[in-house]
Amino acid sequence: MKQKGDILIADTQFLTTEALKSVLAADGYRVSVVSSRNDLLAHLEEHEVSLIVTDYILFDFRSINDLKEIGARPSSPPILVLSNAISKMQIRELDQAGVRNIALKTDDRVELLHATASALKGKKAYSGNVLDLLLKQEGPVEDACLLTSSEIEIVRLISAGLTTKEIATKKHVSFHTVMTHRKNIFRKLGVTSSPELMMFAIKAGLIDNIEYHI
Questions:
Q1: Average pLDDT, the chain
Q2: CA 61 to chain centre
Q3: Considering the entire predicted model, what is its pTM?
Q4: What is the H or E stretch that residue 38 is in?
């Protein structure tokens, strides 16, 4: 069988990785696997890769900016995000980071191979389940699109229980900068307290209930 390209799987789930590796190899792709961000970067330095397939939520990326930085590298391969589940907000974040290829681990073989082939051709590749999510009509859900990517990250850090000082240290910015972001977030969303902000974040799909530290 003619080889179609070199695919690098960046994932930490053993069963998922082995199953995906088997499906792609059977369809004619050469497949390699890495389980850490450092191994991913090292592999890209040493080998030609046609496509990266990754679950960026479970992988040890520091933030979605890691995907953006990888995509901005010279001759960088396209990235196909393969996730257990995804929200509209996460799809928007990925789009802003330049990642427009998304499939779900619940998709069948035909969907996964179609998404892979489309991504390799440089086309936008959303699987059927992802498209259904995008087209789904919702009720009065809060519009998290008001927030910038930096503000979304701060909302998530607040939900993880970090103080303003800790957030400033983690993001390598000043205390004043974080306070300014907090004020802008509260103003944009019309909330007046951290609990209100957390409820908004949960409803908008920015965080899961289990991520909210009281």
A1: 84
A2: 9
A3: 0.64
A4: helix 37-46
Both 55 and 118 in a single domain? yes
Burial profile 111-128: b = 16 or more Cβ within 10 angstroms, e = fewer: bbbbbbbbbbeeeebbbe
Whether residue 93 lies inside any domain: the answer is: yes
CATH number at residue 148: 1.10.10.10
Containing structural domain, residue 183: 144-211
Are 213 and 160 in contact by the 8 Å Cβ rule? The answer is yes
> Same structural domain for residues 181 and 110?
no
Cα gap 88→174, rounded to integer Å? 31
Q: What is the dihedral of CA 162, 12, 48, 6, to 10 degrees?
A: -140
- Please check the confidence at residue 1 and state whether its pLDDT lies above 60: no
State the pLDDT at residue 135. Answer: 67
pLDDT in tens, 155-176: 888 888 889 999 999 889 999 9
Dmax (CA) for the chain in angstroms is 61
Q: What is the number of structural domains in the chain?
A: 2
12-30 pLDDT, tens digit each: 889 989 999 999 999 999 9
Q: How far apart are CA 79 and CA 134, in angstroms?
A: 20
| C-beta of residue 48 within 8 angstroms of C-beta of residue 6 | yes
Q: How far is CA 66 from CA 22, 50, 109, in A?
A: 27, 18, 28
CB 50 within 8 A of CB 6: yes
Residues 122 and 203 in one domain: no
